[in-house]
Amino acid sequence: MQIQRRELLKGAVASLTSFIAPRLSFAESSDPLPKRTLGRTGLQAAVLGYGAMQVSDPAIIRHGLDQGINYIDTADCYLGGRNEKVVGKAVKGVRERLVIATKVHIAKESRMRKSVSKSLASLGVKKVDLMQLHGLSSKEQVVRKDIQQTMRQMKQEGKFDFSAVTTHSNQIEVLEAVAEDGFYDAVLVAVNFRSPANLYKAIKQASDAGVGIIAMKTQNGGFEDKAWPELTPHQAALRYVLDQPGIHLAVPGMLSRKMVNENLGAIARKPDLSDILHLENYKTDLLGKACSFCSGCIDQCRFGIGGMDVARIQMYLEGYRDSELAVSKGREVAAKVRLCNDCEGCSVNCSQGIDIKRSAQRILRFLS
Ligand code: SF4
Ligand code: SF4
Question: HSE of 365 in the Cβ direction (CA atoms, 13 Å)?
């Protein structure tokens, strides 16, 4: 026990430089919910945005908006297509002071157009601020000229103000491609206190190139089964990400007023050493459960797919405890889950101790 605590403190102190140093500047702000400029979009977004993905009650989102949150992230496919309607109800009457971001999948032009029109109708708005290509995982996708042309035309038609992308896997390649190519104005990236240093480096470089950086999965999926004495691990995790160089805002999912208030509390609270200890404990708790989106498994996988999709469905099931989302996303990536299930033996040594093959077996059992 003694040794465990000493090891914990050693890890905590190692994290100190990267955590405390950047966040002091954040703590100096007198604004309870400071805004930052989202890269070259010039949009002013509060550092805490609203990840609306799982919310089915507009009143909960409205509670967040009433507290000063002005950025909302949704998508055409969330809640089986219902989430944009929920967001539409929440923003009624206050849309003008908000930044709304939704998503479209890469597809044939006619299909993308249909999806965007449907999103605008569901949200009840004439245009959104950001239209994000959903789930990119390669440079090849970022630089596709036919897709850029479709996005450019829809933007010119006034359907949205800025083109952006989202990424869950191979994120460094996507960030570098966006920064270099210059077409997309922002990236929604999965990043948290367990993410590798080279991801933070890519984020900073993209941000320096003018790309707006929005962080998701900041609390690493909501896996939490313990009571914590002071600052909650979710609060510490959120503060950690928000204080890293290059990140403009975070959009954690918030399913209740309590969660909104908890995250707001993380902004208002002046951090101290206990935050780091919480995160170190939280890291240990998450081993074997939650993917850190390090992308390390792609190169190790004999089929080049890695385990992120499997780990993501596991996160929806066991972290978010959202079986509807797990089913809908699970169907999208069913071929990959089956491949892992049928694989002779996983060649991946996951940095977070996730048994990818076993997770795939569990997910397939659940989906069937
Ligand atoms: S190696 Fe593990 S933690 Fe890293 S992306 Fe793959 S599944 Fe996630
Ligand atoms: S189980 Fe097989 S297919 Fe799945 S990540 Fe491991 S090596 Fe790749």
Answer: 8
